[in-house]
Structures are given as C-alpha cells and as structure tokens.
Amino acid sequence: MQFDEILARHNIKVTLLRLELLKILSQSDKPLSYDEILEQVRANKTSIYRAFEIFEKNNIIIKNEVGRKAFYELGSAAKAYFVCDVCHAMINIDLPLPNIAKSIKSAVIKGICKECE
C-alpha cells in the first residue's frame, strides 16, 4: 500500500509520523488503542491525535470507542466487532452489514463472550 499516495490524494502533507502511523495500522489485524500505537512509535500525544483527526476526517481511518477508550484502524471497508463487557476482547464479526444506510463505517455489538459467561 502506498501511503504517500493516499495522503497526497487527500491533500494531506506527507510526514514521517503520518506514514509510520498508517504503516502500523496496516500491519495490525485488529483495531489498535493509542497505548498500543505509542509502544511502536516515538512521538508526542498531540501529534498522534492530530494526525488521527485528519485521517478520520478524510475517511482514511475508522475510530471506534469502547468504554471511553478509542481504537483506530484503516478505513478500507465497513467493519463490525463484538466487544466483551467483562474482558474487553474485541472480536471481528464476519457477516454482511445490513443495507440500512448509504455509508456504514463501523458497528460495535457489546455483550459477554463465551469465556466470561
């Protein structure tokens, strides 16, 4: 994936931090919290959140909030997740999302997973 081209297409200035953040998100098979991202990149909090704000505004990433904690992932397609209220596991749901809106970015279903019942 050519992240510099994606940024240029959205008229976003290409910086090393922005490229690194997109690379980190692209290599993950699940949404990442700010803390998980901070373990992989050296930058200040404001710069990371500012980059994510720009990415989200341009539909490059999707932000989900679970228990007042934000999780980020690339916004390539609509996503659905089950989040356990007990252990906070975030599990991908592989099913077609209903055609109820022109554009669906993400859906979160909460409950208690089988392991925590």
Automatic annotation (TrEMBL):
One Pfam family, short name: FUR
The protein's name in its UniProt record: Fur family transcriptional regulator
Organism: Campylobacter majalis
